[in-house]
Amino acid sequence: MKNESKRLVHDLYNSLDQPNMEDMKEVLLKVYTKLEESKENVPLINRLVNFIYFTGYHQKLSFSKEQESMIRKLSKIGQTAGVNGVYRSSYGDKTQF
């Protein structure tokens, strides 16, 4: 699961080429680095997906079908985190990563 989440984060990062996606790319890069170091990556993926959905909605970002598919796959991985996935953090705060 760790290798799949790393691959998805990497592919999503490389697919974002719109100019208004800098924050998203910054967070994806931080998450990718932490996936290298961390043993427990499911809560991190859960927070990442929440950030992507929250930021995408509030900044009215649009994703391609391929990007949406990658986000859904990450979401499926993050769902296994359960209740402990987010610790009262703000969904849109990129400093949580």
How would you describe this protein?
With 97 residues, the protein is an all-alpha fold. The chain has a single domain (2-96), classed as de novo design (two linked rop proteins), CATH 1.20.1440. Helix content is 63%, strand content 0%. The chain is built from four helices and no strands. The chain has helices at 2-15, 22-37, 42-58, 65-78. The longest helix is centred in the middle third of the chain and has 17 residues, at 42-58. The model has no long low-confidence stretch (mean pLDDT 85).
List keywords for this structure.
97 residues, mainly alpha, de novo design (two linked rop proteins), globular
* Rg estimate, integer Å: 12 Å
Q: Which CATH-level-2 architecture?
A: Up-down Bundle
Terminal Cα separation, in Å? 20 Å
Which band does the percent of strand residues land in?
under 5%
Sheet having the most strands: none
Mean pLDDT: 85
Explain briefly what this protein structure is.
The chain has 97 residues and is an all-alpha fold.
What's the topology here?
Elements: H1 2-15, H2 22-37, H3 42-58, H4 65-78
Helix pairs in contact: 1-2, 1-4, 2-3, 3-4
